[in-house]
Every structure is written in C-alpha cells, then in structure tokens.
Amino acid sequence: MKYENEGHRMSRILDSHQSRIVALIITFITTLLTLSVFFYLSITPSAEFEYQDAEFSINRYTDESSLHGLWGLKRPHLQLEGWKEWIGLSRPRDRAKEARDIRDLSDLFYERFPLDDKRAARGMNRPALERLAHCIETNTCGRDEEKVVLLASFHFNNAITGGTSGEDIWARSTLEALHSLNYTLLYSFGPMDTLTLYQGLQDKVKTIIWEGAELKKCLARNETNWESLENDHTPGTFQNQTAQPRFGCFRRPGFEEGIPPEKSFTFHFWSGPENPLGGEFTLSPEDYKSWNKGVGNHYLGYSLETRCKAIPLPTHKEHRGMALGKYAKYFNTSSRDWVWGKEDILRQAILDMPHSNKGEKFEMIATGGHDDGRTGAHELMYKGIRNMGGLPQDEWYQTVAASKFLLGVGRPLMSPSPYDALCLGVPFINPITWWNREEPEDWSRWITQHDALRPYGPPYVYHVQKENHEQLEEAMKAAMDNPIDRFIPPPMTVKAVRERHRKLVETDWTPSAKAAVRALWTDKGKEFPYLLH
Ligand SMILES: *[C@@H]1O[C@H](CO)[C@@H](O)[C@H](O)[C@H]1NC(C)=O
Ligand SMILES: *[C@@H]1O[C@H](CO)[C@@H](O)[C@H](O)[C@H]1NC(C)=O
Ligand SMILES: *[C@@H]1O[C@H](CO)[C@@H](O)[C@H](O)[C@H]1NC(C)=O
Ligand SMILES: *[C@@H]1O[C@H](CO)[C@@H](O)[C@H](O)[C@H]1NC(C)=O
C-alpha cells in the first residue's frame, strides 16, 4: 500500500508542469557545468607554455598529459583553438589561404632579394617557407614549427658557410639550438629583407636576432634618409614604389607596420648594450652579468659540445703545449697586449720544462701566421715556438687534443678556443693582466684574457699573473702532470644552451620592453621614438 502510494505521488510530481520546469533547469545547469568543465580542461594546459625553469619545461614538453591522449589532441593551444572555433569565439583557420600567403611571400622575397652566391643562407628561405606553408595547409606542423625566428645577422650565414670568428661559432650553436627546438628559421642580411619577411608573417614571427649595425639602419630609416641607408644587397626601393610611399623599418608612430621592438634582439659579442631597449635585448655569448653585479646583457651563450664530442680523444699525447692565437700580431713582444714579458719569460719557461718520463723533449707549438709566398715556410711567430701554420679545423682539433695544455699569450680575448681545449681534455693557462695588489687571489676583480673562465681553477684552468715567470712555469708543469678528462662548463652544455634559446623565443618580452622604455627613456625625460604593442 505504502509503496503504491509513494509511486503514485512520484508520478504525480513528474507529471506536473512544475516538475518539467525543474527537470529542464537541472538539465540546463548540468549541461552548463559540463561545458564549463570541458572549456576549463581545454584552456588550462596552455599555462604550461609559460616558461618556468629549464627542468620544469623540459618535463612538460616530454610528458604529454593523459588528458591530451584522452581527447586525441596533441597540443594545448590546438585544443584552445578548437574550442574557440567550436563555441564560435573565433573563425576557423583558413589554412589554404595562410599557405597561399606564405608562398606569395616566398615569391615576393626572391623578387626583391634574388639569390646571391655571397649570401648562401638566403637560398634556404624558400624551402623553409614551403615546409611551413605545406604543414599549415595539411595541418601536419610539428611542435613549434609555426614559430618563426628571423636571423638578421650575417654571422648566421657565416655559420653555415664555415666561418670561424667568435661570432660565427656562437651563431652555429644558436642555429643548432633553434633547429633542435623545431622553430622555422629564416635568414636575412639587412633591414629591408628582414622587414619583408616580418610583414609577410606577422605574428608567426616570435623573435628577430639582429646584427647591431643592421638594426641601427632599421632604427634610423625614414622618409628623408632612406636612400642613404640603402645597400646593394637588400635594397628597399620597393617602399618608393607604392601609390603612397611609406618609408621605415622599425615600428614607430607613422610606421605602425614596422618590426616590433619587443621582438628585436641584438647579437652582440661584447659586454655593452647594443639595442634601444638596453641589455636585456642585447644577446650575449658570455654571462657578463654574473660577474658584474648583475648588470649586463642577456646571456644566451653557446655550446661547443656537439662538434667537440665528435672528435675522439687521442690515446697518446705529445709532450708539448700549444699557444693560443692564430695571428703573428698576438706574439708581438713589444705590444701592450703581450703578457709574457719583454725579457723572454716564455722562452725561458719552455727551455726549463722537463722531459717526459719517456725522455721526449718538451716542445711548444702554435698554429697560424702567414706562409712565405715563395717557399711556403710558416711564419716564425715567436722564437722558441714551432709554428705549424694555419690548419684546417679538423686537424686543429686533433692538434689541440694531442697537446698537454693550451697557453694564452694575452690576445684574443674571450676566444672560444679555450672551451674547445677543455672539452678535448686539455687544460688552459689563462693570463691575469690586472689584479688587486692587496688581494691578488680575489678572482672576481681580476682582468684576464678569458674572464668567463675565472670561476674555474686547476686542474682545468690555471690563472697566471702577467710576466710572472715562476707562476708560469709552475702552471705549465702542473698542467702536464695532471691530465684532465673532457670538461664543459655547465652553462655551456647543449641542453643548457637549448633551454636559454627556448626561453628567448617562448617569452613575451613586452613587459620587459615596457620597463626598459621607462628606465632608459621616459624616466630620463626622453621620448621613446618607437612603438611597442
Ligand atoms: C620537433 O618536431 C617533431 C615532429 O615534427 C617532434 O617529434 C619533436 O619532438 C619536436 N622536437 C621538439 C624539441 O619539440
Ligand atoms: C629622419 O631621420 C633623420 C636622422 O637620421 C632626421 O634628421 C630627420 O629629421 C628624420 N626625418 C623625419 C621626416 O623624421
Ligand atoms: C622615388 O619615387 C619618386 C616618384 O616616383 C621618384 O621621382 C624618385 O626618383 C624615386 N627615388 C628613387 C631613389 O627611386
Ligand atoms: C709590435 O707592436 C708595436 C707596438 O704596438 C708596434 O709598433 C709594431 O709595429 C708591432 N710589430 C709588428 C711586427 O706588428
């Protein structure tokens, strides 16, 4: 009876008009909740793209969360994009049109800046743009492939064509890092080819890495001076060929279509700022900041790990040291830069070195100088040092690796070669050219040939006071008696360098740019002549 009654009451409620409304409301709320949860799930993972720290972001990149698998969606930002389209917040991507625009850009680029033997890297833009167009068209882009980095320094071209300057070596490492991160890389040589690429790709361009002198031309370009800023290989006369010509390059009032300051970084080997936004926008190969009370440029750094590890270490070392420096001018004993005394300190030290336990006589070598045009004899750069002449890169590595130490003679400063040596298991002797007489051991105040190596000591790096015969001999002997294994300073591993490049490209630098405008311009009563986003 009771049950019947209950059932009766129940059906009465369900039948009622009121209850239908209740049911509708419940359904509505449930649906709303479900949708919110879906939407929440779809947008939260995008927070992962905020850079936290190297280790963290590496994990985030390699561990795709189970959620991604569940929805069959590969990437957080694609989920967000998909949802936005689904709920009508954004229009679906017109992939065919995007691809067409990129191919048009490619044609326009080569029309304005034809292929050029002296600028081989330019030829690499077409295949890169075609890959990008194709993967967008077919929705097959790899992770981060749609992020574009513009390489607007000739050092990137040199890196590809075998250049060996410090900047070229740095550029080679930057290319390695950016390639390993899957970014689309495009090469340019001046303001106008860089502008053409930027205008064709807009927001896809995340970062522009500039040669300082080219950035300066870009900053200066306007309607009165544009002709004087032209150069033969990246002419910008196209700006004079429209119905209403507009002349410019950097984004500024009156040229809003210009290259954004907050994405523009300068590739600069030395320690001073070289960008209108100061040190944070000036990339640097060494961590100058770390030894200058936190003041300095943006440490990007480089790695020699890959190319160095490709060289097998010799099983036998010659009983010899090698002098760093490929030009005779570095060995000029009358020059102010020469550190081993006018009085033959180095020659004496060489003569004083003991024989090896196998009885081999000690020898000091150098590689470089000019060869005599007639006889082909290598230039004598220093009496007591055998010059083997300029060596092809591979032989140079073998020669360093088979030596017992590398010795600095004062110049070149901050060369990559001591890092090569360390990575090949060869200690470096670093001359100290200035020290505090009261506290000669306080390395933070030293000036040395290679300041970035000051924090490292024996058995890797021996720091020796300029013109100090005794210290020099001691260091040479200690270096020979204490062989080392390969050594790579931790900030210079491939992995550490890759993470700093990732941070460079993934970070939105607008807040830093705004802070820099205040600190460097407006707070000093100067008007910032360019435009941030
Ligand atoms: C680069 O993209 C490929 C697929 O195109 C992917 O397998 C790889 O993990 C990506 N590398 C990085 C560092 O994201
Ligand atoms: C263009 O820049 C130059 C300085 O490089 C300046 O003297 C000139 O006034 C500028 N012209 C315009 C129209 O702003
Ligand atoms: C720029 O265009 C104007 C008008 O078409 C022309 O008179 C002038 O010669 C052009 N300048 C250059 C450098 O091409
Ligand atoms: C060596 O340096 C001195 C002093 O700077 C200079 O006068 C001289 O010309 C240099 N010698 C060579 C061969 O470069």
From TrEMBL:
Catalyzed reactions: N(4)-{beta-D-GlcNAc-(1->2)-[beta-D-GlcNAc-(1->4)]-alpha-D-Man-(1->3)-[beta-D-GlcNAc-(1->2)-alpha-D-Man-(1->6)]-beta-D-Man-(1->4)-beta-D-GlcNAc-(1->4)-beta-D-GlcNAc}-L-asparaginyl-[protein] + UDP-N-acetyl-alpha-D-glucosamine = N(4)-{beta-D-GlcNAc-(1->2)-[beta-D-GlcNAc-(1->4)]-alpha-D-Man-(1->3)-[beta-D-GlcNAc-(1->2)-[beta-D-GlcNAc-(1->6)]-alpha-D-Man-(1->6)]-beta-D-Man-(1->4)-beta-D-GlcNAc-(1->4)-beta-D-GlcNAc}-L-asparaginyl-[protein] + UDP + H(+)
GO biological process: protein N-linked glycosylation
Claim: Transmembrane is one of the keywords in the record: yes
Annotated compartments: Golgi apparatus membrane
Keywords in alphabetical order: Glycoprotein, Glycosyltransferase, Golgi apparatus, Membrane, Signal-anchor, Transferase, Transmembrane, Transmembrane helix
Record's protein name: alpha-1,6-mannosyl-glycoprotein 6-beta-N-acetylglucosaminyltransferase
One GO term describing the cellular component: Golgi membrane
GO MF term list: alpha-1,6-mannosylglycoprotein 6-beta-N-acetylglucosaminyltransferase activity
